[in-house]
Predict the structure.
Amino acid sequence: MLCLPAVALLLAAAGCSSTDEGSPVSVPRPSAEAAKLCGALHKALPGTLGGLDRDDPRPRSELTAGWGDDAIVLRCGVPRPGEMDDPRANAVEADGVNWMLEQLDSGARFTTTYREAYVEVTLGPRFANDATPLAALATPVARTIPSSL
């Protein structure tokens, strides 16, 4: 498990490319139980994150949220990533919520671990050295998506 300062180093390597700003976001298709949890999370999400106003992506859904024209995109109810089976996968804990890190050409993607529904957060290059959005999302995730442990 990595601590938050380590995330900054990992994100620095991931933050060298641009995002597809304004592009449609794929809406997950979770089970009915996970969709209910995601609906509760959607209502608990902040209006601003990382200094950016909430601007949900299209198509509109309770399973997706965004801030700053796709600078931060959240999808709830995503399938369990296969990378979670890799014991060498990078992970971070932010305010009591565990996240698996995947480096992308356009930034970084974090997916919750040990939760009854998987929540994915993609951070664009603007957040290459800033993991505060994960910390800000930890409280709503912990309150609405129960631990699976």
Q: What stands out?
A: The chain has three helices and eight strands. The beta strands are 48-49, 52-53, 64-67, 72-78, 90-94, 97-104, 107-112, 118-123. Residues 4-15+33-144 form one domain. The mean pLDDT is 86.
